[in-house]
Design goal:
4-stranded antiparallel β-sheet, 5-stranded antiparallel β-sheet, 3 domains, alpha+beta, 27% strand
Length: 255
């Protein structure tokens, strides 16, 4: 068997890194590649069916992260719908602006207006504290005060790596509600310990979305509960995380 990486775009740095670490190639959605028997396709965040998909179905070709599952995981609305149905804890959400206004009127905390369903790094997010601050958005969620935020990497039902998001020392707090790199937050691994609840909810989220692998953003709220925020299928890679995925894929290939 041999791995082939199918990235959401050829310019994806993490897709390049994954292909290089496995000493294999990347293929385009509408390129010349045709699956060979016993190839294993690593779908790196691509929700589109390629032109060679039917050929894949005629041969003994496995796919890790089917495009349809990636399509769901790539949309925060679709993700929340599925996780709600599977009883995976997530922030309270609605697509109804009047419902979001009701939360604010009842003093139920801040509302996160998500103007982009596939945004990342805080893009498209507006935090509303008052009803007049609400903006039109396809998704609204209740803001949850958190004590910790983790990214937990799952491969076929097992935790292969995890990191915690922490504030970089010496960087001013530009936005206390959006923990992005631009606002001075980075992922750290030294001395990080997560409990079994965080691991379980991350595994449950990946399974609910019918994914083989994913990086799950999990928070520990002030209420002591764990919540899933999103599941990433085109995972940012650096340091040990590269080795963790490389080993997971190689073990699967050799298993």
């Amino acid at each position: 068997m041999k791995y082939i990486v199918y990235p959401y775009k050829m310019g994806s740095e993490s897709g390049k890194i994954m292909a290089q670490s496995l000493n294999t190639k990347r293929v385009r959605q509408n390129g010349r590649y045709m699956p060979k028997r016993r190839h294993v396709i690593i779908n790196w965040g691509n929700s589109n069916l390629p032109n060679w998909w039917k050929v894949k179905e005629q041969r003994d070709v496995k796919v890790l992260n089917e495009p349809e599952s990636v399509k769901v995981a790539s949309s925060k609305l679709f993700t929340f719908q599925v996780l709600s149905e599977c009883n995976v804890a997530i922030p309270a959400w609605t697509t109804d602006k009047s419902k979001a206004a009701e939360w604010l009127e009842n003093d139920e905390g801040k509302v996160v207006c998500r103007k982009m369903l596939n945004g990342h790094s805080g893009r498209g997010i507006v935090i509303s504290k008052e009803v007049n601050e609400l903006v039109d958005a396809p998704l609204y969620t209740k803001y949850i005060k958190k004590t910790h935020e983790f990214r937990i990497h799952i491969f076929r039902g097992k935790v292969i790596d995890y990191v915690q998001k922490k504030k970089r020392s010496g960087v001013p707090d530009r936005n206390p509600y959006i923990r992005s790199v631009e606002n001075g937050w980075v992922f750290c691994r030294e001395g990080i310990v997560i409990d079994d609840r965080a691991k379980k909810i991350a595994i449950d989220a990946v399974n609910a979305l019918n994914l083989d692998f994913g990086a799950v953003d999990v928070i520990l709220g002030h209420d002591g509960k764990m919540y899933v925020l999103e599941v990433n299928t085109a995972i940012g890679l650096q340091g040990f995380t590269i080795e963790a995925y490389k080993k997971a894929f190689e073990d699967f290939l050799n298993g």
